[in-house]
Amino acid sequence: MRPLAERLELFTPSSTLALNARAKALKASGRDIVNFGIGEPDFDTPFSICEAAIRAISEGFTRYTPVDGIGELKEAICKKFKTDNGLNYNSDQIVVSNGGKHSLFNIFLALFQSGDEVIVPVPTWVSYPPMLLLAGAQPILVPTRAEDGYTLNPEKMEASLTSRTRGLIINSPSNPTGMVYGPDRLKELAELAARHDLWVISDDIYEKIIFDGVQFKNIPMLRPELIENTVIVNGFSKTYAMTGWRLGYMAGPTRVARAVAKIQSQSTSNPCSISQKAGVVALTGSQEEVTSMVASFVRRRELVLKLLADIPGLTCLRPQGAFYVFPNVSAYLGKKNGAQILTTTDELATYLLEAAGTAIVPGTGFGDDQTVRLSYAVSEADIERGLIRVKDALLKLI
Ligand SMILES: Cc1ncc(COP(=O)(O)O)c(C=O)c1O
C-alpha cells in the first residue's frame, strides 16, 4: 500500500476534539455525560447576527467574495481595532479567514519556514505546535509556572532564544489557563521581541471574555512601534458564540496581509459570504448580548471555583478571562482505581469519563501533565452536577 505523507507523523490529532468525540459517542449511547471538554460557548448566536445571514441568503449574497473578505467587513474590523484597541489599521492590512485557526495557519505558512524556531509558552493551546510543525518551523516550548500566573518569564524566554528564533506566540486571555498577561510582563516581552527582531503573533481571540475589570492589552497597544512586528489574530467564535460560522481575521503589516491572502487565494479562497455579512452585524450592532454572556461566565467561574475548592488536594488559580479553569490534580496522580494505578492526566481523565460521566481534558495536550482543563461554557446545573460527580470519583481513588 502506498504510504501517506511523512508530515502526518509530525503531530497527533487535537486532543480536545478527540475527547469531545468520545464524550459525544457516550452521550449518544445513552450515558449521562457532563461535558467540560468543549471549547465553545453554549449560547446561541445572537439573533440579530442570524438575521443578517438570513438576509444575505434571501438577497442572493451567495457567491465568491474577494479572497481576503468583503470591504464592509474589513472596514468594520478596522473600526473595531481603532475603537477597542486604539490601533490604526487600514483594509489592506486585514485578511478575513475561515476562523481564527485558519488565520493562524495561514500566518505560520507566510512567516516561518524550515529551520525557524518559534517560542510557544506552555501550557499552550493544543494547535500551535502542530500548525508550526506543518509550516516546517520548530515550536520551542518554554514552560511557565502557576506562581507566575502561567505567563512567560522573560529570562526563561531569553534563555531559549537561538540564532534561529523567529517568532513568539502570546495568547491572552489564555486557552487553557484563563490567565491574562499584565501590561508590565507584555512590555518586557515586547522589549525582547524588538531586540531580537521577532514576529509577535498575538492571539486575541478571548479579548472580550475578560473579568474583574481587567483591561485587555496586547503588545502593540503598549508598544506602538511593535506594530510592524506583530500579527494579531481575532475572530467571532468565542465573543459572539459563532463557532460554527467559521469566521476569523488577522491584522498586520500590509506585506504580511498580502502574503496571507496569496496563500488563501490558492487554498480556500474567501470565507463564507453569508458568515461575512453576519460578521458585519456582529461587530457593528449592539454588544449587549456579549456583555450578558460574559456576565454568565463570571457567575459560572465563581461556581466552578467554589466546587473545585471543595475537592481536597486540588489547587486552582483564579482565571481572569476565557471560560476555562486549569486545576492541578497531581494529588490524585499515582492513586489507584481498583488494581489500576492512574499515573497520567490522560488516565485520570479516562477514569473520570467512565466513572463520573464527566469529560475533562487532560493537561498533556497542553504540555502539562499535572493539570486538567475544564471549560465552564456549560449550564450552572451541569457544573454543579458534574463537579459533585468528579469529587465523588476522585475520593474513591486510594
Ligand atoms: C487560543 C485559541 N486560538 C484560536 C482559536 C480558533 O478559534 P476559531 O478558529 O473558531 O476562530 C481557538 C479555538 O479554540 C483558541 O482557543
Question: If you had to describe this structure to a student in words, what would you say it looks like?
Answer:
This protein has two domains: 6-31 and 289-396, Aspartate Aminotransferase, domain 1; 47-284, Type I PLP-dependent aspartate aminotransferase-like (Major domain) (Aspartate Aminotransferase, domain 2, 3-Layer(aba) Sandwich), CATH 3.40.640.10. Helices cover 40% and strands 14% of the residues. It has helices spanning 15-28, 47-58, 71-85, 100-111, 128-134, 154-160, 183-195, 219-222, 254-265, 273-284, 288-309, 345-356, 380-396, and strands spanning 34-35, 94-97, 117-122, 138-143, 165-171, 199-203, 230-235, 248-251, 324-325, 335-337, 340-342, 358-359, 361-362, 372-375. The longest helix has 22 residues, at 288-309. The N and C termini lie far apart (48 Å). Pyridoxal-5'-phosphate is lined by residues 39, 99-101, 125, 171, 175, 203, 205, 235, 237, 243, 248.
Summary?
With 398 residues, this protein is an alpha/beta fold. It has helices at residues 15-28, 47-58, 71-85, 100-111, 128-134, 154-160, 183-195, 219-222, 254-265, 273-284, 288-309, 345-356, 380-396; strands at 34-35, 94-97, 117-122, 138-143, 165-171, 199-203, 230-235, 248-251, 324-325, 335-337, 340-342, 358-359, 361-362, 372-375. Helix 3 runs parallel beside helix 10.
